[in-house]
Specification:
By secondary structure, this protein is mostly helical. The protein is 75% helix and 2% strand.
Amino acid sequence: MIRPYDIIPFFVIIPLGGAFIISLIGKKVKWFPDVAGTFATLALMIISVLSVWIVNKYGMQVYNVGGWKIPLGIGMVLDGFTCFMLVTVNLVAFLITLFSVNYMNRYTSKWLFYALFLLMLTGMNGVIVTGDMFNLFVFLEIASVSSFALVAFGTEKYELEAAFKYAIMSSVGSAFILLGIIFLYSYTSTLNMADMAGVLMQKGQGNIILLVSVLFLMGFGLKAALVPFHAWLPDAHPSAPAPISAMLSGILIKTLGIYTLCRLFFNVLGATQPILSILMFMGILSMLAGVFLAIGQWDFKRLLAYHSISQIGYVVLGIGIGTPLGILGGLFHLFNHSIFKSLLFLNSGAIEYAIETRDLKLMGGLSEKMPITSKTSLIASLSIAGIPPFNGFWSKLIIIAACVQAEHYIYAALAIVGSILTLASFMKVQKYAFYEKVQELTAKAKEAPVFMCVSMILFAILCAFTGLLLAPTVKGLFLDLSVKALTVGTGYARLVFGAL
């Protein structure tokens, strides 16, 4: 008999098995990596959507690995927040895999790319579904190490330098996280998150929890590239192949950084007002610093990398408000940013594929030469700038409304300023890349191959229509489910043990 929670381990089994099979067969059978990689991510996307239905119908699900019940054994948990992140990660991963079918022909060892890609996806899905602190760290490192290799995939000098810097900075973040886990374990004598939350409610939060909170803020803040822990991102994201830039900016920093911060601070440690205030401040700082640094950039992908820092600021600001409306806005913007930022990185990859440059000054006239890339880039640019009716507008509006509702008027005003500056930055992109006169490099440019175009068109459709997720029926099934999972706070422990 198949039970609802039996679906949970497949989020790790499918990508891990796919990576293993591709590494065995892909080197000999040239077409196999494309087919296996695409089908693996398609399967993950389908069961991610299925997981939303399961949680809506049956409630929270807990899978005991090896039959050992938590807290003695390792648990995997499926709740509203988990479903939300799984859909976000695996939807984006599938569309990026589709883009990679044509794009990765530029590189040798295509099988190695897909193996590392699926291994990174294994790590991200594992971080999302695990209910165990040590396993969270293990999956986090699997995703991190895979992403180091993918940043350096082209093996050019600047790619290797960026990967080295990324590896060093990420390792420092991992050290902070591991220290935090060690201190938590020494205080609670358990590694299961739900059990840990229960122990902390009984024993109270001593000074050691303050230390752990600081370590987690630094460690996961570095993974999320929040200012002032952002120095690695502007080098790592532009250096990677376009599909990996889209993965890193679209979902990796959110999974390893934002998801883990939310899960631990809301459901395990308990989100205190000082922590929420720090998150709001870091959010507004990231938002403004990122957009100011982006405006002066002429390298298309580097400009997008700085905007990743800025847009993550909106997500953290919304979540830091701590109200249901603020959390809704933050999570919805997380989802929307995954869509429009992935599309923008794929647009930059399509342009680089056609004319071999990322310098905006050397582009021009691409609206005629690459009409699909041009139109999808315009939609993504309007989305990130928060222009209605595109998805970025709705999530930014909710965040600003939540700031006003919580009487953080200055933060609301600064969020509006950040959006105006973002619009100015992307008007520059549209002007120089697509609507200036045709340059020497762009004279012979051609539209991207079919799978790259299909992927970009599907992302653009999502940018245009994911605002419909706020429709009452859909909102209750998807977004509200994730908000409730966080607003329940440390009551998460009771829900997990009640689901056994």
